Amino acid sequence: MRKAALSLFCLILSGAASSLAWGSAAWAGKPPVVVELFTAQGCSSCGKANQLAAELARREGVLALTYSVDYWDYLGWKDTFAKPDFAERQRAYAKKFALRDVPTPQMVVGGRVQASGTKAEAIEDLVKAAAKAPANPPDMEFVGKTRVAVGSGPAPRGGGEVWLVRYDPREQDIAVKRGDNKGQTLVHRNVVRELVRLGPWAGRPKLYRLPKAADADLVTVVMVQGAKGGRILGVLQAPGADR
Q1: Residue among 137, 134, 140, 111 at smallest CA distance from 205
Q2: Is residue 134 reached through a cis peptide bond, with omega within 30 degrees of 0 on the bond before it?
Q3: What is the pLDDT of residue 239?
Q4: In sequence order, which residues have a C-beta less than 8 Å from that of residue 207 and are 6 or more positions away?
Q5: Domain ranges of the chain
Q6: Into which CATH architecture does domain 2-237 fall?
Q7: What is the model's pTM?
Q8: Digit-coded pLDDT (tens) for 134-166
């Protein structure tokens, strides 16, 4: 880890000698357990999963992210947060887990395991197991407000990827007016609004450029992950976020 930290330090100095670091990671040492919920406002069984994700979002050591998918829109209600990129991410997980189809609601924990978002006890067990699992994340640091540095570390088989996630930390209640959830109000927390693949990571130090945020109120997170829906190796959150 000392060698990785030195490599990252040199990378920051060489790539941004005139810039001050934006800030340090929101989580010191071991990265948080990332729980990704794939949900839809038109899905009749998703309300319970949304509530569970909102509860997990308040827990220390957990980063809960809510992705709204668009393939339920045909039932008569167009999801207000859905994007095709989110469904594509879920399909990558389905292929990695050898699932015949993409289930909704679905929770993926650490990019390693998955379960139905309606099964609170199963999700709790997966989160606890992930929190106890050994971790060797690469060093990560924001460089100014436009770049992020990822240090060296063991790359997963098949290589890694660096992802930018921007989410809205507020709790939002959406009143559904059509479809299977007509008349219901669904809670949302940590709704992902932007998902961008910054580039590959092969275990060596590298700088990545961050796209400009569409909304200044969104929280920026950078994740290092195995390629095509692999396990999440490292997480860096911009400072100042109210989690």
Answers
A1: 140
A2: no
A3: 79
A4: 11, 15, 16, 143, 147, 148, 149
A5: 2-237
A6: 3-Layer(aba) Sandwich (3.40)
A7: 0.89
A8: 988 999 999 998 999 999 999 999 999 999 999
